[in-house]
Amino acid sequence: MSEQMQQLREILGEVSDLGRAAAVLGWDQETYMPRGGVRARAEQLATLRRLAHTRFTSAEVGRLLDALAAETAALDPASDDASLIRVTRRDYDHSCKLSPELVAEISRATSLARPAWIDARAQSDFALFAPYLEKNVALNQRVAEALGYTSHPYDALLDRSEPDMTAAQLRTLFDELKAAIVPLVRAIAAQGAVIDDSCLYRGYDEQQQLALGLQVVQQYGFDMERGREDLTTHPFCTSFAPGDVRITTRVSRDFLPMALFGTMHESGHGMYEQGVNPAFDRTPLCRGASPGVHESQSRLWENLVGRSRPFWQHWYGKLQAAFPAQLQDVDGATFYRAVNKVSPSPIRVEADEVTYNLHILLRFELEMALLEGQLKVADLPAAWNARMQEYLGITPPNDAQGVLQDIHWSGVGFGGFPGYTLGNIIGAQLFAQVHAAIPDLDSQIAAGEFAGLLGWLRTNLYQHGRKFTANELLQRITGGPLSTAPWISYVRQKFGDLYGLAA
Ligand code: ZN
Fold first, then answer.
1. Can you give the pTM of this predicted structure?
2. Where is 244: in which H helix or E strand?
């Protein structure tokens, strides 16, 4: 390694340490910190993030990157060193456009808005959260202006997380999805079969639910020697290193899917982080490729695996044994149908696979309108409800189950929601590819064996960390670009079968 590469890696290591330390404090805030800690924690996080930002955007890093671009020019672009320089350069150019003051202000605003959002949601009172959201919208606008864009401010925010993706491309993608989903939802409604999912609401002991969720994800391959799970209000996964990955969940006595599928979901994020090449630790390559690619893994393990027929062939007996009082009169086929019921509902995280993307479309459009200034924060609840009615045919009973349901707008991260839809699409593309590579995948899953699947994902995706963009990964793995076709064919087949629709 050249002396300059050595110097750059030392600085990147320090920046990473500061970022990961902030992540530990952020994780603590969402899991164990008492409410009294809010203001002090806001300052601690703002300080750490400002220090990391200042260190990373120093002229020294710029000089080293210039020199190393020349040094790595002859290397294979897919090599670790060339990728490190390319990805770091992209981050550096983005970060240099944001002043340390703006970075600290965003961090502080987020820390203060979070508890306001929690209160507002608990009381279903949007007015309690509105001033914080106004501040966050303004900060999103400032970030977009600072980063710069050619056609829409949303592009600037997208480019940070999903390079090469634009609002116009997303629009096309959502149009394709909408054209497939709306008729499918109508056909399911017209078919008239109502799936009985009452078995999911039968008073399940919380500790047993948590234990079972952990049993499932350990069988998946989530490594508890290099991770742990804790409780929180709005579940997430965070990584401090490939050897220390934290997942979180929430549990409801009266709704079995919350903890079970939530834990599967976060374990998908977690296994991705645990699978990153350890040599990337303390560099910008040491995390998943992008929010969309990350979400492809949570959705894959939660839905494509966890809500599949083969999965429950193996697991239903174990679930029944854990909860005999609740499930002894329920057979496996009934349970499989219950966890796959299609029913437009107000809550995104509880949405079925078919209607889920409509929830994201709604948020995508509202964020665009807020960013443009076309929509005022005060008018947001009404705009939310109008779109819920238009896309899903329902009106949320209150703002807690409407506009206040997501944690996201308590932060400054517009442009993040489309990652969920990208995740669904990419997940289906990758899963089709794994099926082609492992012809007996379904039998393996039906036997409770996941090593083949996890091994394939580690080799083809996880180990690469952030070396490649979403588009580059898809090209490498599937030989083609991002495509909605595999997801559309997956839902048509699965739910057509489930609801007895003519093909
Ligand atoms: Zn997720």
1. 0.93
2. strand 244-249
